[in-house]
Design a protein that fits this description.
It is globular and about 60 Å long. α10 crosses α11. The chain has eleven helices and eleven strands. α4 links the parallel β4 and β5. The longest helix has 17 residues. It is α/β, with parallel strands linked by helices and about 325 residues long.
Length: about 325
């Protein structure tokens, strides 16, 4: 295995800049064999696995027990969430017993990763897994479709009556300007060629439509705290780690305009990172009152600093785009 003094031959998949050694990690989630080397781009700061693995190796990173493949059920939305969706994001068909001014005030501090509504909007979720998100968006009035690589997850979606294509996005060959909304939630970090991926999304989004990306934040406060023990590194499945700036660069170079870029955190990432650091001896950190309290303080500190563990971004295709 090359050490940190070996030259980085792979160029950055985001901007083609030169890379410098970042870290070497192992699979902490499924204990797959091997060590995996990562570089950081000197130009845009993206962190990427080097050398870039081929398709067969990437496929081997995902055992059948990989969590996103599990069947899911759409959650029931509580009255506060329905009120915020109705008053802030345009879901006027949702019932709400709360006054609009109160819902708008709540919307400034909660449910800030919601997506503006398009009546009868055509939605595509890439990497839809066990279809939980598709079902939830269908309940909200969207017309959902999906793309998923895993055969078991696709079967689950089909059994739920959903239109899901098995394979890669480019192989689905959707028509130009097919969708009002394309979502890729915790997907782009798994893609070896993000430039081509975002370019394909741009092609299939309608003028004025949206691309929504969620991905771990390489500039997160927690990554500074935990380094290679940071849970969201998810070596080797995460081929790339983005920060808000280089994610925006990627989208805007494809032609999108930036609408929203925010970061979020939950105690889970901190608690799981603690378990990685401690090699999971004894009770897990989520059962430790002191660690749970510190994790809540961490969430507050990450929010104040703007360095949450997850980037949430909405990009729009210009309305005048052909």
């Amino acid at each position: 295995m090359p050490d940190d003094t070996s030259p980085i031959e792979s160029r950055c998949p985001v901007c083609r800049g030169e890379g410098r050694y970042a870290f070497t990690g192992t699979d902490r989630l499924h204990d797959l064999p091997g060590e995996f080397r990562y570089a950081e781009c000197r130009e845009c700061g993206a962190v990427y696995q080097t050398p870039t693995p081929g398709p067969e190796q990437i496929a081997s990173f995902y055992p059948e027990e990989y969590a996103p493949y599990r069947p899911g059920k759409a959650k029931r939305r509580n009255p506060i969430e329905r009120a915020v969706l109705r008053s802030v994001y345009g879901y006027s068909h949702l019932d709400s017993g709360l006054p609009g001014w109160f819902a708008r005030a709540l919307g400034s501090v909660t449910y800030r990763d919601a997506v503006p509504y398009v009546r009868d909007g055509q939605l595509l979720d890439i990497g839809c897994g066990g279809c939980k998100y598709l079902l939830a968006m269908q309940q909200l009035g969207w017309q959902p479709r999906g793309v998923e690589f895993n055969a078991f997850a696709v079967q689950t979606c089909h059994e739920a009556g959903l239109d899901v294509f098995q394979g890669e996005l480019r192989d689905a060959a959707f028509a130009d300007a097919s969708f009002d909304l394309v979502t890729a939630r915790h997907v782009i970090e798994h893609i070896p060629d993000p430039v081509a991926f975002v370019g394909e999304i741009y092609r299939i989004v309608k003028p004025g439509g949206m691309m929504v990306l969620k991905t771990p934040n390489s500039a997160a406060l927690g990554r500074d705290w935990f380094g290679t023990d940071w849970y969201a590194n998810d070596v080797p499945r995460h081929l790339l780690l983005f920060a808000p700036d280089n994610l925006t660069l990627l989208a805007e170079r494809a032609g999108f305009e930036t609408a929203v870029v925010r970061t979020f955190s939950t105690p889970k990432i901190v608690l799981n990172s603690w378990d990685y650091r401690r090699h999971n001896p004894g009770e897990s950190s989520k059962k430790n009152k002191l660690r749970r309290a510190v994790a809540r303080l961490y969430v507050m500190a990450a929010a104040v600093s703007g360095r949450g563990d997850e980037v949430f971004a909405i990009f729009r295709k210009p309305a005048h785009a052909g």
